[in-house]
Amino acid sequence: MTTFEIGNKDFLLNGKPFKIISGAVHYFRIVPEYWYKTLYNLKAMGCNTVETYVAWNVHQPKPNEFNFSKRADLVKFLQTAKELGLYVILRPTPYICAEWEFGGLPAWLLNIPNIRLRQNDPLFLAEVERYFAKLLPLVAPYQTTQGGNILMMQIENEYGSFGNDKNYLRAIRDLMQKNGINVPLFTSDGAWQNALEAGALIEDDILPTGNFGSRSNQNLDELQRYFDNHHKSYPLMCMEFWDGWFNRWKEPVITRDAQDLVNCTKELLDRASINFYMFQGGTNFGFWNGCSARLDTDLPQVTSYDYDAPVREWGEPSEKYYLLQKLLATYPDASPISEPILPEITAYPTLVPNKSVSLFSTLSTISQRVDSPYTQTMETLGHYYGYLLYRAKPTAYSGEIKLRIYQCRDRVQVFNDQQKVATQYQHEIGNDIMLQTPNGAFQLDLLVENMGRVNYGGKLLAPTQHKGIGAGAVLDLHFHTGWEQYLIDFERYDQIDFNGCTDPKTPSFYQFTLTIDDEPKDTFIDTQELGKGVVLVNGENIGRYWNEGPTCYLYVPAPLLKQGKNEIIVFETEGVEITQLKFSDKPIYKKLDTKDL
To answer: What keywords are assigned to this protein (predicted)?
Structure first.
């Protein structure tokens, strides 16, 4: 049986010094059919270990609903790594950041009155305990202490950039141990003294590690200084060595020079162990993208989590991959170098829509209706992600009336008798909207999109993470009472009534059929000529698109397709009439200036 220990200067594998050469792969961002290929390529680059976060909101999407199937089948991912001879670093912490929706925290936590997230709060810890009781017994058999391949696990993630509640950290540690975790534990924080002092548990002999992406010697010196200040001796490790970066809508793609990465990697490996973050980034399928917190307007991240990583979102090794292969081959603990498995990508023929229908015409079949006197948030309605339509039927006593919407996140489109009047974003919501109204009853529709909750920083606790319309909508000078709320559910895609009325000027569904004669291959949907919305492929929500860029494509892995007829549904919100759907054999980017790290 393999033994793993944290020594004074080295990690010890079976009693001998061992340099961890790891790469990050998030199983929930890659289709399960490609886990083997991804992990094979990781080992072929020279890595001996794979690291992954565990996303709480993926595994517990509702308070009484747990999910460990398909992309959430963590056990299958661990088994695949074991079959390939890879060790695992597991990070099953309540919070993960990872540019993931709400940093991995389930949105339903926001419904618990007075809860204090990521703090030594009985309300929060009770929910963590309930989650851990389901999760940890599944992964415990894969620990090296039980004959498995998990070397160590994380208590909390970059906690020193959020709080300094050491009793909270100890409570998480205790819950892990209570549920059968007995491999070495660690924390990871930015490599500066304030973050380490706040977020580590060095006083309890828990290994501190650092997160950084450059100035390797300088950051390792800071980590060593922290050890020395506490009269401790541990092996040095960068738990997140940022080899690229993530992207946000309307901003340039961020890239990193491959040779610069290799130079910094060598500097690091000569002194420490490494975890490349990311090895392969993958995709924020569905509504799982995170959001960067800003003082006024938060900045949602794009569907692609390509990260400019050594292996691209679509599984293609980049220049970084091959240069790192050469470097890693010089270290004795590296896995044997071999040729990677390459993706097969094609551009399918352009399609024309079979049918289309206005959202307003099929609203009752694609959503659940909930009536209430005042508007309710998405969380209150148990509809945590995506879109929600609020409908009222007020009476006007003049030809024009003023509308103001209060406490609304993140984006709202206003329709007056199904005619679009305005679109407002976070920084505009609350401004006056003038409605031209008949002297009598009219229909007011407010389509609200949750564009993603923040994944980092103090705004995790902010009221702005409640989505939908909180306070309500004011007509003239009074809050309007009497609302129909339609919880748009894309899992009801097969109930869309394409026999209903069409109106391309309104949010609409477009149906396409892709016929594939041979074995399906990966492809990209070209979204340059579309407006904003989401795409479903055989019922699978493959993510959001937006012609603002920088990404103007959606990646479609072959396992989501099948031989024969494939149904593709586009939900377009911007009044763009879709007359064709194009494919590409390469990713497409809007011509914005590229930013270098």
So the answer is: Glycosidase, Hydrolase
